[in-house]
Amino acid sequence: MNIEEEKSLVELAKTDAAAFGALYDEYYRKIFGYALRRTANLQHAQDVTSEVFFKALKSINSFHWRKIPFSAWLYRIASNEVANCFRRNSHYQSSLIPDVAIVDDLSVKDEFQRCDDFLLVHQYVMKLPQKYQEVIALRYFEDKTIEDIAAILGKPENTVKSLLRRGLGKLREVLT
After folding, report:
1. Residue 156: per-residue pLDDT
2. Buried b (16+ CB within 10 A) or exposed e, 87-125
3. 22-66 pLDDT, tens per residue?
C-alpha cells in the first residue's frame, strides 16, 4: 500500500469501521511479527498485538499526518506495549522453544534451527537496556531503515544511529 492509499484509508477509518478493518488486515501480520520477535513469547505477542489495534481503533481520530506513516504510528504503539508487557511480566519466559528431536522432516528441522538461532540472539539482546533493544529489533528483525526507526520512535535520525551503534557495541560486550 502506498502512502496516498494509506492516507485516504486512515481518513476513511475515522468514520468507517470497515476501513479500519482493511488497515487491520494490512498491518496485523507485521505488528504481530514485531511483537513476536521482541517478546519471543506467543501469548505475549498476541496480547501486545491485540492491545495495539485496540488502542489504534480507540485513538484513530487523534492520528494526524505529520510526515510519518500510519504504520510507524502502529509500531510506536507496539513498541510501548512491548515495554509494558516486560514491566508487567518481570519474570518473562520465552515460549518458542522447539523440540527438534520429535521432527523427521528436514525442512521443519531447518525452521527449528532458525528458531533456535533467533532465541539465542534474542536472549543476548534482552540483556541490553530497552532503548537499545528497540533500535536493534527494528533495524535487524524488522529491516526498517534509519528514517523509519526515527519516525517510529519519534527521535532524530542521528540519535537512532547513535543508539544503534552503542547498542551493537553493548551487544558485543555481552557476547564476549
Report:
1. 95
2. eeeeeeeeebebeeeeeeeeeeeeebeebeebeebbeeb
3. 999 999 999 998 998 888 888 898 999 999 999 999 999 988 887
3-state secondary structure the chain: CCHHHHHHHHHHHCCCHHHHHHHHHHHHHHHHHHHHHHHCCHHHHHHHHHHHHHHHHHHHHHCCCCCCCHHHHHHHHHHHHHHHHHHHCCCCCCCCCCCHHHCCCHHHHHHHHHHHHHHHHHHHHCCCCHHHHHHHHHHHHCCCCHHHHHHHHCCCHHHHHHHHHHHHHHHHHHHC
